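Spend some time on the protein that follows and explain the fold to me:
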Amino acid sequence: MNDLNDPKLVQMFADVGAIVRDSHFVYSSGRHSSVYVNKDALYLHTGVISELCKHMAQPYNADQVDVVVGPVIGGVVLSQWVAHYLNERRTSGETLAVFAEKGSDSLDKQFSFNRGYDRFITDKNILVVEDVLTTGGSVRQVVDLVRHHGGNVVGISALCNRGGVQPKDVGDVAIHALVSFSLQTYNEDECPFCQQDVPINTELGKGRAFLARQKAQGK
């Protein structure tokens, strides 16, 4: 865990069970670890997520952020709250909240702007929000999408950076994360928990999908 973290913010995560230890987790990125940041536990508590989003919005000049963009699903909630707190500090105009989503085709893994949201991106200053950064892959897609539509990305604000993600990983955009954790993660082939046959957690993370894929491959 990063010693520079604000203890009060870390405690907010812990109080709602958003930091889970001592199990065998599979992340969305495919990497394995014994620690999991359960963002879904945060979303259950509107007061907690509201307060955290206030902190996410704080470093930015409200008058210089036109639109907050988050990737589905958690980013939808974050974009709403962060835009709300930016609007509380604006001297004129309004900060909008939109989201990027993936295609309905399970093979389509790329983000896009639907519902006409692309019309609010061109020539605007965009703040990208995310709950948990592991590899930065999803956020990088959103950054590229915003730029494709002519938007200017002014920053990335996240609840948690658990993968040591750096600006170079996300299109050279400055990252502000409320908390950062230095978590040891492993590829499947090098995972010590797999080697020791530690059961995979199927309640949190992507463990259930991982096991289903292994079964389909006859492993």
Summary: The beta strands are 19-20, 25-26, 32-33, 36-37, 67-71, 96-102, 111-112, 125-133, 152-161, 175-180. The chain has one domain: 7-216. The two ends are 34 Å apart (CA to CA).
